[in-house]
Amino acid sequence: MKIINPATEELIKELVDDTHTSIAEKFSTLQNGQRQWAATDLLKRVHCIEKFYSLLDEQKEELAKTLTSEMGKPLQQSYNELNGARNRIQFFIDNSVKWLSDEWITTEGATKEKISYEPLGIIANISAWNYPYLVGVNVFIPALIGGNAVFYKPSEYATLTGLAIQRLLYQSGIPENCFQVAIGKGNVGEYLLQLPLDGYFFTGSYRTGRYIAEKVAAKLVPCQLELGGKDPLYVMDDITNIDKVAADALEGVVYNNGQSCCAVERIYVHEKIYDAFVKAYTEQAGKMAVGDPMNPTTEIGPLSRKEQKEFLLAQINDAKNKGATVLAGGNSLNQKGYFIEPTVLVNVNHDMSVMKDESFGPVTGIQKVKDDNEALQLMQDTEYGLTAAIYSQSYERAEALMKQINTGTVYWNCCDRVSATLPWSGRKHSGLGATLSYQGIRAFVQPKAYHIRG
Ligand code: NAD
After folding, report:
1. Cα 291 to ligand 1 centroid, rounded to whole Å
2. Angle in degrees, 0-180, between the axes of helices 75-100 and 60-71, rounded to the nearest 10
């Protein structure tokens, strides 16, 4: 498999893909290791993760450069991702003992009762490229702490990072027979679906997620899916700090080159402040620095792959053909690399792909609405259900909508945010199950009920 730098289109490295046979061997290695790992004291398992936490910091320069070179996020954002991942790991370090220890339910009377939490066994962690550290640690850290062995399948667009993660985990004391990496594209991921694994934890697109869920259904093991989104942001008419809200929304759209699962993908603005908002947003978008992600002044780097650039240009064209106006951007850069300008579209509607299908790039449509009801209807008009953001001075007014929106996460006066202490979960085509928070610790274990008499 060739690893290509999306900013230069140059070959970084060529790796040998796993085969059916090598995957079977790696599985057998994990079978040898998992029981012993599960029998290892919980505190010792947590201790290894503490070491991993430190190594991520000690080696951050090299790790950040590798990440930026293989998937294109601006270098500072690679550092931010490493820091964010460490914050999440700290949460797991601080909270796992509490949520994984035996729970005594009844200690009096003839029959005592307790719940213990046992690992699932060997789990697959099939992952995406856009935040390989963040979405990875949501899964493999609590899974390892919980006593599972992990078959980790990094995306083919973040494999060097996946291999770096493996190296650091081994350096931290995680036994090699508890963590193995599958190298390759979707066909290699497919081999994992054929194995008798004890759980499937997937981060990626709806299309692949649904396929995996169908494929493993008959195994009757947990299958969690963190999938895409088409997340809306609504600006109510009582907003007065329009420049600040426009800046927030723009960051929500373009951060990580627009490739966040919870990126702002469509914006609705009350008609009373629509013109002012569009002006502020377009001015700011037009000034953004697009280019070499290794350059510290760059704000938007390349998309991860050529097909994604072509998809976005087609989405912009579809909108234009149906009557949309481009106020900023709209083109790719005339140079090597998969760059696209931050693009602002108005006169948009829900017949256009840009308002319905996940864009996953620095492109957004801004639509005028006459009141909160119309905004709610449009926000709900999607097959996805990851997040939704509302900006208003009134919490009561925002909350009235937040309660009705069918998403796993809602934001008031913020957006594009994930917290280690809250469950991260999608509804509808955005996924199934939750990671992070105490629920994301318990997701990788199964309860055993003890009835103890005598
Ligand atoms: P993808 O579905 O193309 O690939 C994800 C992973 O699945 C990769 O490792 C890929 O090799 C593997 N894969 C592909 N086909 C497979 C098969 N048949 N069997 C087994 N594995 C297979 O997604 P992507 O392009 O890597 O990621 C982008 C998507 O991920 C976006 O939709 C984004 O919104 C979503 N995402 C969601 C979250 C979340 O937390 N909800 C986080 C990050 C990304």
Report:
1. 25
2. 110
Q: At what angle do helices 159-171 and 132-145 cross, to 10 degrees?
A: 40
Total Cβ atoms within 10 A of residue 87: 13
What whole-number distance in Å separates Cα of residue 142 and Cα of residue 93? Answer: 9
Q: What is this structure's pTM? A: 0.97
Q: Which phi-psi region, left, alpha or beta, contains residue 173 (left: φ > 0; alpha: ψ -120 to 50)?
A: left
User: Atom 16 of ligand 1 has which residue's CA nearest to it?
Assistant: 186
Look at the block and give the residue holding tokens 């690893």.
3
3-state secondary structure of 178: helix
- Tell me the CA–centroid distance for residue 228 and ligand 1, in Å: 9
Phi/psi at 342 (5° precision): -60, 130
- Catalytic site residue 226? yes
- Beta-carbon contacts of 227 under 8 Å, excluding residues fewer than 6 positions away, are 203, 204, 205, 206, 209, 261, 384, 386, 426, 429, 430, 431
Catalytic position from the list 70, 81, 156, 226: 226
**Ligand 1 centroid – CA 128 distance (Å):** 5
Single-letter amino acid, residue 405? I
Take atom 40 of ligand 1 and give the residue whose Cα is closest: 226
Given 178, 261, 262, 415, the catalytic residue: 261
Residue type, 454: G
* Euclidean distance between the first and the last CA atom of the chain, given in angstroms as a whole number: 61
pLDDT means over runs of 10, the chain (454 residues): 97 98 98 97 98 98 98 98 98 98 95 98 98 98 98 98 98 98 98 98 98 98 98 98 98 98 98 98 97 97 97 98 98 96 98 98 98 98 98 98 98 98 98 98 98 93
Q: How far is the CA of 226 from the centre of ligand 1 (A)?
A: 9
How far is the centre of ligand 1, averaged over its atoms, from the C-alpha of 203 (Å)? Answer: 5
Query: Which atom from ligand 1 is nearest to the alpha carbon of 204?
Result: 30
Token pair, residue 245, equals 């809200």
Ligand 1 is surrounded, with C-beta below 6 A, by 126-131, 135, 153, 155-156, 185-186, 189-190, 193, 203-205, 208, 211-212, 226-229, 261, 358, 360, 386, 426, 431
Separation of alpha carbons 301 and 75, rounded Å: 9
DSSP state of 217: G
